[in-house]
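User: Could you write out the 3D structure of this protein bound to zinc ion? I've included everything you need below.
Assistant: Certainly. Input first, then the structure.
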Amino acid sequence: MDIRFATEATGDSAVLMACEGPTLLDAGKALDEKAQGAVTRAMAAARFNGGAGQVVEILAPGGLDFSRVLVIGLGNLERADALACERWGAQATRRTIASGAQQLALLIDALPNAGAADAAARAAIGARLGSYRFDSYRTRLKPEQRPSLKEIHVVVQGPAAAKSRYEKDSSVADAVYFARDLVSEPANVLYPEEFAKRLKKLESLGLEVTILGEKEMADLGMNAILGVGKGSVRETQLVVMNWKGARTKGAQPIALVGKGVTFDTGGISIKPAGGMDEMKGDMGGAAAVAGAMMAIAARKAKANVVGIVGLVENMPDGEAQRPGDIVTSASGQTIEVLNTDAEGRLVLADALWYAQEKHNPAAIVDLATLTGAVIVALGNEYAGLYSNDDDFAASVQAAGTHEGELVWRMPLAPAYDKMIDSPNADMKNIAGKPVAGSVIGAQFLKRFIKEGTPWAHLDIAGTAWKSAPGEDPVSPAWATGWGVRVLNRLVAQKFED
Ligand code: BES
Ligand code: MN
Ligand code: ZN
């Protein structure tokens, strides 16, 4: 989709901003006058009150050149900020993408909490995020099912400033697309080696990308991740993406670590059949890390960042690991694998060790679709946040709030840690009783973090995809790309010099 910035409203369709009241903003008022009040009459007829996300659609209004005018609510004027503009822009494209409209004019007004350039740039980002589709395998779409929208005209006073703002921020939208595509790809197409190949291509952005195969991992003693892949015919991979953008050359990096289980059958502790297809998305943490690295490199962030993803397929097979197997992780700690479906923590155990052993990070964030239990606790709205450092946790939380990727802090405590002690090994990979499942996963990971390194774990099992998309305008498809933005923002706010 082509996005351009202009002062004149052109195109076949127009979108107006309105706030609670309802009140049209200046650009909308001018248009309404031209249409002799048709817009305000339609608003009243539809009982539109300007609430966030409310939409009135007026077809072929008299007195205007537009064949379609949409009024979309921003909510309360005093509270409408850049994020509200983003959601507004997303609503606009979602409502019109396959409507027959070809050029959409977004009429932007400055708001008390978002200047014109900011509001325009964020509306444009929202328009892009809201028009995401995963259509690559749909070869028989009827013309009316295909996107009709070709151009977005962002209409604003001072289009040049808005455009440069948009260009600065748009790499994050590209990166969210990249992550969503990875999560959406089926596991017969996206298996560990193919995933690694796609990451290797990020070298064109200036990232240094290293791929470790099973032989290299075995030499490093990474038997926890290798155990997970034993039942798969696909080779397990560990990919390291390095961005060295800090002014101080040897500055310690922030490490971003992702769970990349390209398909999770559960292994010998096999999952029930219903909904198992969704486990193609069990690499959502790795996708978020990959997307964040892409955004960080594309905008040439002044920070050292290393992204590490453990890529593996969890399958049942004659070679697969069994419940009761004991593996020695690269850290030297032994793990009794009581449930082969609690595999994400085994992947991260070695990936986290590698991050600390080889990159001496100043801080670590890991992302993983780790537990169904976090969905029980938080649904699809918030990701679970666990951390050993209050300041760091607050930074992650603030980055998430800023970007509309919400996180909720959950507890860690010695009483939970005790529950994974094993009589046969240093630890077991599940607790004795099925309680506090998401906390237990986090406690397990914590055993692989060196004392004193600020660490945050995000359990994104509820946010990496949505079985029923439609609520969130910026995330219209099954895969959300959740995490790209929070990581990119965290780096921008806390780690750039
Ligand atoms: N990938 C799953 C977690 C998951 C569940 C993600 C649902 C998204 C939606 C993970 O590997 C898993 O199977 N976890 C088990 C852990 C249990 C065996 C302790 C779970 O949550 O049931
Ligand atoms: Mn599993
Ligand atoms: Zn899993």
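The longest strand covers residues 254-264.
User: Perfect, thank you.
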